[in-house]
Amino acid sequence: MSTRWKNVIFDLDGTLANTVPLILASYEHALKTVLNQELDVDLAKTWIGRTLMDAFMEHAPDQAEDLEREYLKFNAEHLPDMVTEFEGIPQLLADLVEAGANLGVVTAKRRSVAHDTFAPANLPDDLAIAAAMEDTPVHKPNPEPILLGMKTIGADPASSVYVGDAIYDLQAAAAAGIDGVGVTWGAGVPEQVHAQPNAGIADTVDELRSILFN
């Protein structure tokens, strides 16, 4: 079986790894500790896919550094217990590699935190983090992280796809001139994901498999 695209680049949070409960809990802790605010879950979900500093600078610029520090402290403490596997994703990645696909991850996470996510999500340790938060000065929906990710894994736009759960993922893919595939099991609002430019939308891992393989 062959793949529709030679190069398959993935978002991490809410796409390959079930990190959304941890992310929301980390936001909840930071907002309560620093600002004594309750978490607006719907608002916080719109922050997923962006860098922490971008989100916090928008929400409370004077306390952004304190918010980031509290978020990261809570996140590191609870990551091993709160990150879980999306059933079917590890096998999908293995099958893509077996079919000859070139894989990579482009994420707004710090590289070290992204790699720490692999084990509890049952992702292969050698999966390439093609671009992480510290690698570019701007982030999704800007295309620069995806463009760097393609360069890192030696991918060309015509044979590449970016898979993600957030509207920023699909917007960044379009801006980078490559196909984007959305998934609806992460943080994104399904109706908003469907409304973005896309080469397919998957509600399940089996549907994603059908999109990625010919």
From TrEMBL:
Domain of life: Bacteria
GO cellular component: cytosol
Protein's name according to its UniProt entry: HAD hydrolase, family IA
Gene3D superfamilies in alphabetical order: HAD superfamily/HAD-like, Putative phosphatase, domain 2
Gene Ontology BP terms: DNA repair
InterPro entries on file: HAD-like_hydrolase_sf (IPR050155), HAD-like_sf (IPR036412), HAD_2 (IPR041492), HAD_sf (IPR023214), PGP-like_dom2 (IPR023198)
Gene Ontology molecular functions: phosphoglycolate phosphatase activity
